[in-house]
Each structure stands twice: as C-alpha cells, then as structure tokens.
C-alpha cells in the first residue's frame, strides 16, 4: 500500500472500532437506560436508515465536484456531534436528533472513504484494498463491541455516556488522520487533463442521468440490493427470530453464531482473497449466491431437526459461518467493480448510488423478515431467501456478459496486456495522476 492508503485504512479501522462500542447497545440505551420505551428505541434505528436515504443521493455529486476529503471531514463532524449528543440525551427529541446527525455522518463517510480507496489504488490492487477495508471494518467492530460489552452497565448511565464519548473521539481521530493524506488525482487512462476538462464541461450536470443509462451499473445495483437483502438485511430480524423461535437456541448461542460469522471473516479474508482475486468477478459473485443458498437450506434444516438440539445448533452456526465465507468473497469483487464501471468524473456518484442501494436493502430486509416472522410464515421465509440466493447467481452471470475483460478479470487483463514486460493498465480502468489533490476543492495543485 501507498502511505496515503495506509492512513486511510487506519482511520477507517478506528472509526469502525468506535462504532463497535455503541452500535450493539443503541436500542437498549434508548429503551431501558434512558427509559424512553421500545417505540422510541425503534425510531432511533429507523432514523439512521431514513437519514441515509435522504443524504446519499446528494453526496456523490459533492464528492465529484469538491473531492472526497471535505465530505469525509463533514461526515466526521456530524458523527462527532451526534455521538456526543447521544451520550447526554435524556429525552426522545434529543435522542432522535442525535440519531439523525450520527446517521448522516456515517452515511456520507461510506462513499467518501470508498472514493479515497479508489483514488489510491489501481485496477490490479483495488481488490486487495477493498478486502483490507472490509477486514479492518469487521475487526474494528468486533473488538469495539467486545470491549463495549465489558464496560457497559445497564444500571449506570454514565458507562453508556463513556461509550459515546469514545465513539466521538474516534471520529475526531479519523478526521485528524485524513488531514495528513494527500490524494492522487482520479482520471481515466488515455486522456490528458485538457481532454478531461473538456469532457467535464460537456457532461450532463446530473450524474444520475449518466448512471441510469449505464445498464451494467443498473444491473449491478439490482444485484447489490438482492445481496444485501438476502444476507445483511436478515441478521437482526428474520434470521434471529427464526433461530430463537424455530431452531430454539438461546440468545447467548445466537451471540456465539454471530461471533463465528465475524471470526470467519477475520481469519479467512486474505486466504479467500488469494483464491478469488484472479478469477472472474461475476463468477465469484455467482458462487456466493450458491453458498448462501446452502446456508439458508442449513438454517431451514435446523428448524426441522427435532429432539437433537446439538445438531440443530450446529446447522445454524454453519449458516452464519457460510455467510461469512460469502462476505469475504464479495469484499474484493463488488466494491472494486463499482469503481471500475464509473467514469473518472463520477466515481463519487457511483459509490454513493451503490451505498444508497445498500441502505434500501438494509431497510427493506428487516421490515420484510420481521413481518414474515410475526406471521409465523417461516417456511415461506426460508424458501424466499433460498430463491433470492439463486437469484444472486443468475444476476451475476447476466452481469458478466455485459462486462469487459478488464472489468470482470482486471488482474489477468493487465498481465496479458503487459506481456513479459511491465504490466500495462487497461484503458477502461480508473487510474491515477501523480499530482496531489487540494483537500479543499479536489483540484490538482
């Protein structure tokens, strides 16, 4: 990694570490510690999702016009104020306002940091960069959650305030680390700066119109929605309810299953990266769909095993482990593909659009899973998600037919282009100029 990318990854890990301190305890804090009731606690989580849906459509345009650094600073500031507000809030309006601020900060940080990773990587190194980001996110969240759980006491509100102060401090540290980074200038290979400026003047003012005409990106967004809906969107709703109500495991065992999921990601990420980074991205994602279909079948089987609780528990833990394997395969494929599909001037717009799709799926997944769980329609629930998983495979194969060789298999494309000499960069890939970017406005200095 370059020095700039190392600092970006370090700051990202610290932000995840701080988020891990508070994310698992938001509902308990609002409902029980501040005694605001389950309804307010549920609204706190809903505000997170709603605010993200409001700010993300505009975030990409700002990133592309001003650069990702000012957006990241704004996100860090909002996150800091929101976290501190949470720590001192005692009423429903102040808790909801703090949730809105912190939710907006976290939402706009995602595409800003992703755009920074793109700017500091090439088509060949991008898979490794995003895999590292995913690994550090999960490691930071896991360690933060573990330490937060050891520190917190439901009967002592001050312990929760300390957690929020730690999260606010991590947002400040993130901004301080990013302030030391000088980003290379994003541009498309084969075009000089004069031509790039001319293209920018001729481009439509709205990046959304360009994106919506890009059929490959639209198909990738549909694929991303199904991916997040069928996995992440079920962790805290339908799958948890199924595990407790049908498989009949204890909540402590459910915590172990979640820990196994995180452990698989942390331990297997770089092993999986070596196996998939030279393969076709579309086929890797298609394989993820198959693996997740098996995971949902295992979950369904865990509810059919009667009288052998050990087998049922093992099947459910296997479900979470298989999800972890799939996640390690997605991190070096999907996010880099978003970057490689984006025109140089619209990387922020494409990253924000994909983040928006993710938020929509994370909002729809729990709502739909929770509804089926409330109805007791667990058989329909499992069948639907097995179908969604196979749908991921089908969509990935369809997307593969639309991708260029450089987009679907960038490592091999570069090596073949370079022959026995130094590898050359594919023309479709977003590459870098050595001129640093001014952090205030994204212009080359």
Can you characterise this structure?
There is one protein chain. By secondary structure, this protein is mainly alpha-helical. α3 packs parallel to α5, α4 packs antiparallel against α5 and α12 runs parallel beside α17. The longest helix is centred in the first third of the chain and has 30 residues. The C terminus is likely disordered.
Q: How many distinct beta strands?
A: 2
Please list the strands of the largest sheet in the order they lie side by side.
Answer: 1-2
What gyration radius follows from the Cα positions, in whole Å?
22 Å
Count of helical stretches: 20
| Average pLDDT score | 81
Instruction: Tell me the strand percentage band.
Output: under 5%
Which regions are unreliable across 5 or more consecutive residues at pLDDT < 50? 187-205, 415-445
Distance between the termini: 23 Å
Q: Please estimate the helix content.
A: over 70%
> Which sequence of SSEs, written as H and E, runs from N to C?
HHHHHHHEHHHHHHHHHHHHHE
Major beta-sheet overview:
2 strands, antiparallel
SS-based class: mainly alpha
Shape: globular
Multimer state = single chain
What's a concise summary of this model?
By secondary structure, the chain is mainly α. The protein is built from 20 helices and two strands.
Feature tags:
about 450 residues, disordered C terminus, globular, about 80% helix, mainly alpha, 20 helices, two-stranded antiparallel ribbon
């Amino acid at each position: 990694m370059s020095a700039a990318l190392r600092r970006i990854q370090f700051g990202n890990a610290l932000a995840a570490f701080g988020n891990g301190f508070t994310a698992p305890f938001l509902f308990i804090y609002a409902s029980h510690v501040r005694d605001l009731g389950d309804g307010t606690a549920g609204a706190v989580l809903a505000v997170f999702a709603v605010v993200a849906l409001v700010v993300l459509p505009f975030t990409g345009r700002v990133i592309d016009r001003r650069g990702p650094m000012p957006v990241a600073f704004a996100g860090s500031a909002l996150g800091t104020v929101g976290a501190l507000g949470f720590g001192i809030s005692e009423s429903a309006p102040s808790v909801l306002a703090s949730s809105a601020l912190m939710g907006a900060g976290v939402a706009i940080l995602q595409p800003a940091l992703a755009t920074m990773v793109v700017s500091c990587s090439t088509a060949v190194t991008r898979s490794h960069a995003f895999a590292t980001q995913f690994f550090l996110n999960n490691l930071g969240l896991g360690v933060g959650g573990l330490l937060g759980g050891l520190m917190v006491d439901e009967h002592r509100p001050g312990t929760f305030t300390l957690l929020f102060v730690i999260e606010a401090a991590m947002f400040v540290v993130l901004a301080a680390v990013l302030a030391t980074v000088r980003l290379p200038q994003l541009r498309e290979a084969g075009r000089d700066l004069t031509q790039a400026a001319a293209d920018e003047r001729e481009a439509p003012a709205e990046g959304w119109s360009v994106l919506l005409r890009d059929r490959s990106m639209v198909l990738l967004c549909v694929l991303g929605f199904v991916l997040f809906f069928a996995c992440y969107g079920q962790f805290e709703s339908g799958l948890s309810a199924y595990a407790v109500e049908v498989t009949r495991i204890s909540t402590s065992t459910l915590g172990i299953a979640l820990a196994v999921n995180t452990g698989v990601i942390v331990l297997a990420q770089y092993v999986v990266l070596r196996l998939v980074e030279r393969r076709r991205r579309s086929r890797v994602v298609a394989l993820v769909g198959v693996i997740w279909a098996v995971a949902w079948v295992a979950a369904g089987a865990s509810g059919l095993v009667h009288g052998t609780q050990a087998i049922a528990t093992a099947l459910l833990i296997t479900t979470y482990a298989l999800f972890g394997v799939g996640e390690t395969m997605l991190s070096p494929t999907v996010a880099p593909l978003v970057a490689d599909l984006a025109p140089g001037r619209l990387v922020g717009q494409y990253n924000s659009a994909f983040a928006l799709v993710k938020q929509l799926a994370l909002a729809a997944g729990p709502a739909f899973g929770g509804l089926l769980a409330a109805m007791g329609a667990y058989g329909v629930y499992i069948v639907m998600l097995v179908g969604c998983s196979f749908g991921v495979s089908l969509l990935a194969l369809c997307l593969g037919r639309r991708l260029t060789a450089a987009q679907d298999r960038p490592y091999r494309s570069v090596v073949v282009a370079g022959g026995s000499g130094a590898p050359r960069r594919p023309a479709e890939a977003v590459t870098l100029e050595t001129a640093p970017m001014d952090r205030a406005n994204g212009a080359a200095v």
